[in-house]
Amino acid sequence: MYRLSKLRFGFPIILFLMLLLDGSISQNFSAHMFHYPTAMVSHLVVLWLVCGVLFEADANDFEMPIGRWAIVAGIVFDLYYTGIFGIYIFIFPLLVYLTRLLVSYIRPNFLSGLLIYFIDITVLEALGYLAGRAIHLSSMSGTDFMVNTLGPTLAFNLAMFVVLFFPIRWVYNWLK
């Protein structure tokens, strides 16, 4: 079924657009998103990957190679945005695996998707912070990270989930 759907080409195209939108949002709203000491980071790529797993589990008639696309997105994200190769190439597929694991226990709908996305963003930011601490890229304390980065990032991304969930579901249904 996946081989015959428009989703075969639409998923990576929109994933690439989400990568570009992440950077565009961060650039255009940098005065509001990165105002010292707080930082809000847009993660539309993770939103697209999580919604892919949620809608894939909801359909039950096909399985997309979301893990492979997560690796590709991680490579592009690492090379283009961070300049450090190897952090997000492992975190994005890990989030896809974690989301599939959670979906096997929780029936996917809007509220459970919001909870899963909350968990995924928390894991993404925490692993990124720990990797930054391990390679001495960040000297921020754990409490400062939780208050000044994790909290605002969760608030922004959960708001984006609420706003974009139904349009993304419509796009998935159209591409199927």
Order of helices and strands: HHHHHHH
User: Helix/strand-derived class?
Assistant: mainly alpha
Q: Overall 3D geometry?
A: globular
- Strand-residue fraction? under 5%
Question: What is the radius of gyration?
Answer: 16 Å
Query: How widely separated are the two ends?
Result: 9 Å
Number of domains: 1
Q: How much helix, percentage-wise, in residues?
A: over 70%
Unreliable stretches: none
Query: Overall pLDDT, averaged?
Result: 88
| Biggest β-sheet strands, sense, barrel | none
Strands, total number: 0
DSSP summary: helix tally? 7
Describe the structure.
Its main location: membrane. Pfam families: MreD. Belongs to the MreD family. With 176 residues, the protein is mainly alpha-helical. It has one domain. Helix content is 77%, strand content 0%. The chain contains seven helices and no strands. The chain has helices at 7-28, 30-33, 44-59, 66-82, 88-105, 110-134, 142-175. Helix 1 (7-28) runs antiparallel to helix 3 and helix 3 packs across helix 7. The termini are close together. 30% of the residues are buried.
